[in-house]
Amino acid sequence: MITKLLHQIWNERKQNAWLFFELFIVSIFMWLAIDPLFNLVIRDNIAKGYNSDNIYSIYFSHHNKRSPKYKAEFDNATTISENYMQILNFVENMPEIENYGISKGNFPGSDFSGKWDFTVSGEMRADGKEIKKEICYYINVQTTKSNYYKTFEIKDAATGEIYKETKDNNGGCYVSKSLAKKLFDTESAIGKRINMDKMQRSFTVLGVFEDVQSVIYSEPGELMIINQEFTTPNNNYTATDYVIHIKLKKGVDTHLFKKKIENEIMPQLSIGNIYCKNFISHEEMKHLYEDVYGIKNKYRQNFIISSFAILCTILGIIGTFWIRAVARRQEIGIMQSVGATRGTIVGQFVIEAVILATFAFALTMPLILHKIHTMGFAEPLTTFIEYKPIGETALWCNKPVPHFIIVSAISYVLITITCIIGAAIPVAVTIKREPVEALREE
What we know:
Layout: H1 2-11, H2 13-44, E1 55-62, H3 77-92, E2 97-104, E3 114-120, E4 131-142, H4 148-151, E5 172-176, H5 177-184, E6 193-196, E7 201-209, E8 224-229, H6 236-241, E9 242-248, H7 254-268, E10 274-281, H8 282-292, H9 295-327, H10 329-337, H11 342-375, H12 400-431, H13 435-441
Parallel strand pairs: 4-8, 5-7
Antiparallel strand pairs: 1-9, 1-10, 2-4, 2-9, 3-4, 3-6, 5-8, 6-7
Helix pairs in contact: 1-11, 2-9, 2-11, 2-12, 9-12, 10-13, 11-12
């Protein structure tokens, strides 16, 4: 049957030429529309390596001497220490909190991470080579009650369990799985040491965790978390350098909690010259970053353009096949008059459409590959903080070959389904008419 249909398509090549050309152009546009849309979906659903659900971050600032709210009697080391400890004690005793952690500036879900040059001596590696590398890092400020790793649900690379934080006063650190592999050529890095260049500091690796995003929207990868012993702030600058992260208990009504933040909690976190500058959930933080960096508009623009292109493509294909079915009413009438069943007629037109679409799509592949070679794949987040272009990514679905195969498969399936619908519906409508009517019109 396929051979017969191929002969028929060839014999009607003049009539099919325009349809074939349209499917060829449509296949190119469909691929180019799916590519950025696929990137948007993938990059927005990258596994973060931590859990930011129901986490709020508390930022502090202070009134200086130029502020009308400045109070000189609170500007001394003893009072500042007492005020901060009062704030921390209030946070620790909030009934809605399950866990909390303190960071110095950066943390999972933020828009930046600290970077510094670190060195691993050759004796820490099997090959004896010294490694020097710029590493993204966080600073975990440890109190007796805080649990940074449990708050963000950072997981042990070996067991997959949430890390049980080790209270450490000797400058220990945790490293991600990929960073351990890079620095020590093995994931078994516990007990090895990392040196912080120009600072004459050294850190012992206490554990290896699953890769996490160093900044929001980045790809999970190399990261170091340095433990720092909590010291009671004795000046306003140190107090406002700490960011407190709280995780709510399950079942807490977040809507009511947000109201409580404004009416009750934030006033309690403002004592002396120290005040709560912001109390924000990580969900709100994400939306804020998207607005500031234009991500939301870029997402919306790319999504609308791609969706509109796909919709126009689908409607164009269906319209063309409808016109083609109307033009072939006499042929349909003849097939009916010789006893062809409804399923046979529809099936023949559908198979013809699929064959034409398949050949047209196959011929677009060299052009698509040339476009990729000269211009690369679509990159929807080039204006944001950090991203890895396709080809440098560790995500399997965004490596060049899998990415090309997935986008091509999605494009082909959409075109094929559209051709099937476009061929089947008008033919089915035409079949409902009497064969004599179709033949008489011709």
